[in-house]
Predict the 3D structure of the following.
Amino acid sequence: MVRIGYTMMTEQAGPRELVDQVVRAEQAGYDFSVTSDHYFPWLRSQGHSPYAWSVLGAAAQATSRIPLMTYVTCPTVRYHPAIVAQKAATLQLLSEGRFRLGLGAGENLNEHVVGGGWPSVDVRHEMLEEAVEIIRALFEGGHVNHRGTHFDVESARLWDLPDEPPPIGIAVSGEQSCALAGRLADLVIATEPKAGLLESFDRHGGAGKPRVGQLPVCYDPDRDTAIKRAHSQFRWFGSGWKVNSELPHPDAFEAATQFVTPDDVAESIPCGDDPEDFVEAVRPYAEAGFGEIALVQIGGESQPAYLDWAEKTLLPALRDAFA
């Protein structure tokens, strides 16, 4: 059975609203939740970007059942991996074992804020591999000293450790990241329903491990309103990760997507209130082999109505289709 997740999209709502939304998602019956970790929104029209880890801490206290997960955190530039390990261990304790640490190689959009330039993708993957090594060593307890190519750790130790460390997921978009995830991750993360990504993950050691996908949706009783909102806030989504990871600012995403039309967006994102359109958008992920699929409802102000509709209509339709 496919598990359906809810996305706390930090780019489109403030911190208190995000916590209220995940509480309602738990009540609605979502199987898990994920949280983006941004410093900037993709587009100015989204309008938000609170600190994801504070939001997660509040969500851990405000909820009791729904699993939490970063989707995803970059542990290499804006954050040092030793700090990510401490944050993740603390979240696992606060949530009483409900947290998973999703990691990725990052986007220039968020990481450029600390200066130092944006490394090439090969270097970013080297940094991610070294970061995972450090995080896992700290999860094991004891003092960690590390002298690496990209990071140093000086006699670090996590003083508050959960009995079971958070599982580590790694986001993938191509062969190189799939190889990294297959070797190092407990689960794989993707935003495209490509069976080839999962096959590559399996070839490199990922066989049998969980796989989590994500896709945007835009509910509204008026389909034209949904399409307009999706175009305003999510037209960047179809650019692909090779582009999205390199652009440095929301204004760059504005320029890169200036010729994307509402019709283009409506072709790739289900819009409106017909649950069958949403089911058909999820189907490629299920058929590719994703056992968990997180939905992103576009528009912070639309969440209350969406969550009511999801509880009554969408979640039952998805469970009937993918039981």
Q: What stands out?
A: The chain has one domain: 3-321.
